[in-house]
Amino acid sequence: MTTLGKLVRTTAFKLSVVYLAAFAIFSVLLVVYIGHTTQQMMREQLNETIEAEVKGLGEQFAQGGIRRLIDVVERRGRQPGASLYLVTDYSGDFIAGNIAKLKGAMPRDPEVPIQIVHYLRNATDAQPQEAAVRVFVLPNGFHILIGRDMSEGRRFREVIGSALRITIAVVGVLAVLSWLFVGRRVLRRIDAVSDTGRRIMEGDLSRRLHVTGSGDEIDRLAENVNAMLERIELLMQGLKDVSDNIAHDLKTPLTRLRNRVEAALRQEPSVEGYREALDATIEESDQLIRIFNALLKIARVEAGSPDEGRERVDACEIAREVAELYEPVAEDEGVMFTADICEAAPVEGSRELIAQALANLVDNALKYGTLAARDDDAGPLHITLSVACAGGEVVMTIADNGPGIPQEDHERVLRRFVRLEESRTAPGSGLGLSLVQAVAHLHRGKLELADNDPGLIARLRLPTAG
């Protein structure tokens, strides 16, 4: 398709045509209104002028008779202007005035207020002029015609018509120019969007739509699409990482599972040996099932809508239930467990998922805190669970004085299957913090990790329910 064909099919062209038609109609109506109003005013002024002339000439006739009236008509007729006078006798013959000839018969009906006639001011004129006149009958059969030339009104209509044509022509030219400018500009940006989209479909997910910074609707669309592309790229990268991590992390338990089965087959047949091998196989299988269940849970959370299944829940109540669940466990492990929970902290979301996320954080603090060896001077492991409202957020904090996580690994441990070397001897899959972060994102919140010096502080921030 040619560039002109593309321009004609653009929304800018269609809007230009609509706006031009609307403006043309509005201009015509405005000019018609102005012309009609002006003509009405001119007619009223004409009537007032003729009435004044009639009154004045009537006074002259009353004071000096027909002779004085003729003198006044002759004098006024010689003055330049649009006023017209004609006095005739009872037979219609010319007596005085500045009208040389009427085209047609002399109006003789004084009952008609205003009549339109055509006349020649000079006998040599080739084109008759138009006039609005009024006729009065004087005693002795004399007729006097008083009127105004209509040339000014005709010229006014011509000026209005010319102004309307020029206005429509100028607006049309401006509309075409603006269409060409805006249409080509929009078309270039749309072509750029199409080109970027084609490259993205070819597999280059790093491409982004150009944002000019003008803040118009195309910029807003580009920003939203870019945000969507960043999300897609992140998910694709996450999928790749998950695939790599599954291949790496599941290889070890599967290998152990196979080796144990092979070892059981190679050893001397015995019921006790087979039982131990089967128990170990079941334990490895359960670990694999737990890993897949965690992956499925994370996938469901990440694919869920933030507004789906939302309800108003109390984060403090959830935290108290988690504290009651883990206090006996902490006591058995010799861990000091403290809960500092406010009265109420309403949030909107899934009660089950928030409880799962909070339990994962407490479980990590217990599991990895008790795993590391502690100096006598360090004292017992101390875990604190607190909930508070601040700045429109509900902040659920789990702090411990355990081994903690190095600052440079805070972002890395939120990825799936990431486990630090120090914790590889502990049971787990490296998916707990990934699940907590997915729950935070689902609830439009965030998970933060910070140093407790010593130990770790994990903060789960969720927006307060309105």
Automatic annotation (TrEMBL):
Membrane-crossing residue ranges in chain numbering: 12-34, 163-182
Residue ranges of domain Histidine kinase in the record: 245-466
One annotated GO molecular function: phosphorelay sensor kinase activity
Pfam families: HAMP, HATPase_c, HisKA
Record keywords, A-Z: Kinase, Membrane, Phosphoprotein, Transferase, Transmembrane, Transmembrane helix, Two-component regulatory system
Residue span(s) of domain HAMP: 184-237
Compartment list: Membrane
Record EC number: 2.7.13.3
Name of the protein this chain belongs to: histidine kinase
The organism of origin for this protein: Breoghania corrubedonensis
